[in-house]
Amino acid sequence: MNQFSLTTRPDDLDESVGPNDLNGSGRPKDTNGLGGPNNPNKSNLLFKDYQNDHKFTITTQTSTGVEITSTGVRKGELYLADISTKLKNKNITSDIKVDTNSSLRTTITVDEPAPGVKAIFSFIFPDQKSGKVELQYLHEYAGISTSIGLTANPIVNFSGVVGNNLVAVGTDLSFDTASGNFTKYNAGLNITHADLIASLTLNDKGDTLNASYYHIVSPLTNTAVGAELSHNFSSNENSLTIGTQHALDPLTHLKARVNNYGLASALIQHDWSPKTRFSLVGEVDTGAIGKSAKVGLAVALKP
């Protein structure tokens, strides 16, 4: 499912900002990514935490303030693991991750080297073409982000969003200097009104149109419904996903979704403590009842 995101950082570091992340004055909140009209509430409702793998995460913090996170994932017969460390010293944050693919990801973030500015430097070793420098600027009612690869013929990314707590519009562009062509151009519109958020995005160089909707039914029980309809112009295919969420109590949450392909999923999350979460996910193909249901399990511990 395509989602519009104005971010130029690696996927696993993406913390996009949407219009819902604007405060009452319309000024974007302080975040680690610049995003656009991607309706983050809808994305959380319909897609977040729905995984059919077995995942275990534990996070610890040393007396010097270094945060260490270890993650293990089982995908079928494949086992993956990584260890990441995060150290913050004044306005500089360093993230280093090592995984079982023998890759080393490093991200260095400098907050406020100048008012409203954030600088991000990232690279993946041993990929010599992965180096990237990004600059973000957040101002009242607007934000821009631009990045460039540290290669002879880099890819240049630009994203921008303008809006307030009611309406936001944005665009996301990527230009390959080697070929002289745009490799990505997306655009989006997001409208927020009371307990309803609606967005319209054009992705894949104008080939995919997404419309999404998120409605808060009951704030007291965190009950909400959402839907996303996607149309691909080249293949003339449509996809529809609808979902809902509800809190049984302050520590236990339920989510469910179904799409037009007959895949139905349900999720239950329980917080043992403010820093410990257990998640159980089940997925069944209603069009093929003979197939076994898929079950995913995730445990996150943070002593």
Automatic annotation (TrEMBL):
Pfam families: Porin_3. It is found in: Membrane. Residues 1-45 are annotated as: Disordered. GO terms for molecular function: porin activity; voltage-gated monoatomic anion channel activity. Keywords: Ion transport, Membrane, Porin, Transmembrane, Transmembrane beta strand, Transport. Coiled coil: none annotated. Gene3D superfamilies: Porin (2.40.160.10). The keyword Cytoplasm does not apply. One of its GO terms (cellular component) is pore complex. Belongs to the eukaryotic mitochondrial porin (TC 1.B.8.1) family. This is Voltage-dependent anion channel protein 2.
